[in-house]
Amino acid sequence: MENLHQHLSQALKQLRQANGWSLTLAAERTQVSKAMLGQIERGESSPTVATLWKIATGFNVPFSFFVQGQTQPAGSGATFCQPNAQMQVKPLLPYDDRLRFDLLEVTLAAGAQSDSSAHEAGVIEQVVVLEGELLLGLDGTWRRLPAGEAWQFAADKAHSYRNPLSTPLRFHSLIHYLQRP
């Protein structure tokens, strides 16, 4: 876990410097407080999955950029866990800039909910429930997806994932990113 925190710290610093952004500008673009961004850069805080998504969206990079690291290939056990262990995310394939997608395995603890802010315009997400039952919140309504079912939706709007059961939920999330100009 320490290597992941170090990677998050370095990745955030590199992105910010490569874009020439101050912490203030990064906070505006990501909708994450300047204090939180500073704590992540110094390795003093571990962000939630939702916060990491906001940072990735603000910098226009895939989520897996922060999780898989430069030295660990995706699928090699590089799993990001929230500090409260309510949600875990593991990239299953390395991000490919030519194809522009992330394939993630997501695990939600019993009774847990994760709220995701809108991704960049045009992002499409597909979820496939492997174990348990997913309540997918979109546009103020909840769609129930039992194991074996899939759904595709526009992820450029706020959306939520909820596990209504007393057992863990596991699903795949395939996220298609908009082509950069």
UniProtKB/TrEMBL annotation:
One of the record's GO cellular component terms: cytosol
Listed Pfam families: Cupin_2 (PF07883), HTH_3 (PF01381)
UniProt KW keywords: DNA-binding, Transcription, Transcription regulation
GO molecular function: DNA binding; DNA-binding transcription factor activity
Protein name: XRE family transcriptional regulator
Source organism: Candidatus Pantoea soli
InterPro entries, alphabetized: Cro/C1-type_HTH, Cupin_2, Lambda_DNA-bd_dom_sf, RmlC-like_jellyroll, RmlC_Cupin_sf, TransReg_Diox_bact_type
This protein's record includes keyword Lyase: no
All copies of domain HTH cro/C1-type, residue ranges: 12-66
